[in-house]
Amino acid sequence: MGEINQPTAVPELVGLVRGAQSTPAVKQAALHALQGYNQDEIGRQMAAAYPTFRDNAFVREAGLALFASRSSWAMEFLKEVEETKTIHTDDVPYHYARRFKLLQDPAVDSIVDRLWPEARLLSSSEKTDRINKYGQLLDSGNGDAVKGRMLFLSNCGACHRLHDEGGMLGPELTGYDRTDPDYLLLHTVDPNADIREGYEVQKIVTIDDRTLEGRIKSQDGGTVTIEPPLGGKSTTLSKNRIKEMEMQQTSFMPERIMETMSDQQIRDLFSYLSQ
Does residue 183 carry a pLDDT above 90? Predict the structure, then answer.
């Protein structure tokens, strides 16, 4: 229903999301389908309904993807976070805070910067300062690789694979030159320094101003299929509905991944990475 453009389906789809009898899978599918309809009322109703479906991780993810796809919907969601405070900032992971900024709406950017300051990209001087700081830290003591392995799995392992452990959403790290701490620091502090081929992220804007982000899964005939960078339900679009498609110069890996770690934890992590 999200692909065939039948506006009369919108009330039914909204009802499925709000309905107490709908299964999580049905709610997730309905939220995904609603992205295809450019109606401000969808954003208002879904923002109001969000607390009723946020308890399921997959449905919550589908809801966040919906809000991040259009500026008016993003504003409705952000009002619930900042003004009515019915939604907590912790509900929004880093990559969705970044996705809101893809809308390139100054009003949205202003709120996102206030609510999630960690979503602001570091300046060149800030990156240099951090690389120097962490370099001195690594020179000042030794790390525990056993503890570092656990830090890797909890902070990096969802996307990266190392020594036959971890996920496959990001590049496999085992074959990288991990004996050079300066190389490791550069790509940890600045993941946008060199985005590996095959892991580029595309931004698509449709003719009705819907914004999507992800990897191009396929381009067959007159359609493009894009899948979210961290996995999830793919979207297939007719090429004649696409207004703009461009490769992003930023990785979906967070820049500030080490800022929540203690000095010793950073030494432990790099001790494991360098093995």
Answer: no
